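Postdoc handover notes: sequence design on the structure in folder B. Input tokens:
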């Protein structure tokens, strides 16, 4: 790790190495440190309207949908997402495009000058760096994805124009709690009094609505103020007497409904034709992303039970068409591997287990121990890495087979890099 403080002429890689070294913890809960630094350099005084997007799953797809619909209307938009798949630059977009390294370097240099002796985690640097970039570009709207939970996440230092919760499920239990009520309460911490709070979850824990009422947030809840319904090839969305129907997009309809409601609440909903065009062209990397047609290969970042359930539904549709499903999975050590594997077990014909050598990555031997707790009749093979598995598995696939590579952002990144090679 770099010990010397980088400068504006240093490389982005040098800066990222430095950021990893200046705080002893990967995650540090609490807002005081981050807010103090942000105030010192004036990041919280901005003309941009900020939409905070929290949730267990669906933040990235909801943000991408909002981004597309706002850009189509001519607004300038800054989007902050994490983690990245291949390059750090993916985390910050201006008008849908990544930025050159120097924008990030300039932002980090500004933070280094303004933080004094205050330690920041890697994620906190990234969040403040994104806010600095958005202020520099003076964008109309900022879409800010919450990193972990909500209440004590670094993104929660801002004053949102609206707050969004996509879904609520169990993940990061060591920080957020082991019930949906505890997780929901933490995520509701991004609500503000008198400010729109849109919740897309289909079974909203009472702790979310209790907190919203307590602080007098302006809540719009799935199943109450808005609804959606899925059909074989289409889905419909209803809000305040308005009902629209569209072809099914490449992302979950639930997240589209949440995004449409958010814009409708803010009087920013475009016309039906514009919505239809945006949804038709909407693609989000790593979310049931097709890597190849021959053989048929998909990849997905699913890494918790809720995202695994959604992935299982997508795979079941392909299985109904006569495809055999081969699943290559590699996961992080702190995830509920047994629960994830159980959610997908019924639609998988062959399991390929692989290890991850990245930070927090788990060995294939540990993944195999988790698989022992899953009652499966599928064939199981083990590989030390995603690359090793792909080398062996791809030549074996025929035209009636599909391969899904999933389990973490690192797993998807490995698959994408493999394809690029």
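Designed sequence:
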């Amino acid at each position: 790790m770099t010990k010397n403080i980088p400068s504006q002429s240093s490389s982005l890689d040098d800066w990222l190495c430095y950021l990893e070294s200046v705080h002893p913890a990967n995650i540090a809960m609490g807002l005081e440190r981050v807010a103090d630094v942000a105030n010192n350099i004036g990041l919280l005084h901005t003309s941009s309207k900020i939409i905070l997007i929290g949730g267990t799953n669906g933040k990235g797809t909801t943000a991408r949908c909002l981004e597309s619909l706002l850009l189509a209307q001519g607004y300038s938009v800054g989007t902050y997402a994490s983690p990245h798949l291949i390059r750090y630059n993916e985390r910050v977009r201006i008008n849908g495009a990544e930025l050159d390294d120097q924008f990030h370097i300039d932002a980090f240099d500004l933070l280094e000058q303004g933080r004094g002796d205050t330690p920041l985690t890697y994620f906190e640097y990234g969040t403040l760096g994104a806010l600095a970039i958005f202020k520099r570009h003076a964008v109309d709207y900022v879409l800010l994805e919450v990193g972990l939970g909500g209440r004590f996440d670094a993104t929660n230092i801002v004053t949102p124009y609206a707050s969004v919760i996509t879904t609520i499920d169990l993940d990061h239990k060591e920080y957020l709690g082991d019930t949906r009520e505890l997780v929901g309460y933490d995520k509701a911490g991004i609500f503000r009094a008198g400010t729109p709070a849109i919740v897309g979850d289909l079974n909203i824990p009472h702790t979310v609505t209790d907190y919203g009422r307590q602080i007098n947030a302006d809540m719009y809840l799935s199943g109450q103020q808005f609804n959606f319904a899925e059909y074989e090839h289409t889905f419909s969305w209803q809000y305040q007497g308005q009902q629209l129907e569209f072809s099914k997009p490449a992302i979950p309809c639930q997240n589209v409904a949440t995004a449409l409601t958010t814009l409708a609440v803010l009087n920013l909903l475009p016309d039906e034709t514009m919505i239809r065009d945006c949804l038709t062209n909407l693609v989000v990397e790593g979310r049931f992303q097709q890597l190849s047609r021959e053989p048929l290969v998909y990849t997905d970042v699913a890494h918790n039970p809720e995202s695994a359930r959604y992935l299982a539904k997508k795979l079941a549709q392909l299985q109904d068409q006569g495809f055999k499903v081969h699943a290559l999975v590699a996961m992080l050590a702190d995830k509920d591997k047994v629960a994830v594997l159980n959610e997908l077990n019924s639609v998988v014909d062959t399991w390929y287990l692989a290890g991850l050598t990245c930070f927090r990555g788990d060995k294939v031997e540990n993944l195999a121990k988790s698989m022992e707790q899953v009652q499966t009749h599928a064939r199981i093979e083990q590989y030390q890495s995603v690359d090793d598995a792909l080398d062996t598995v791809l030549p074996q696939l025929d035209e009636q087979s599909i391969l899904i590579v999933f389990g973490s952002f690192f797993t998807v990144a490995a698959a994408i890099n493999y394809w690029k090679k």
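Context for whoever picks this up: The longest helix spans residues 122-137. Don't rerun without checking with the PI first.
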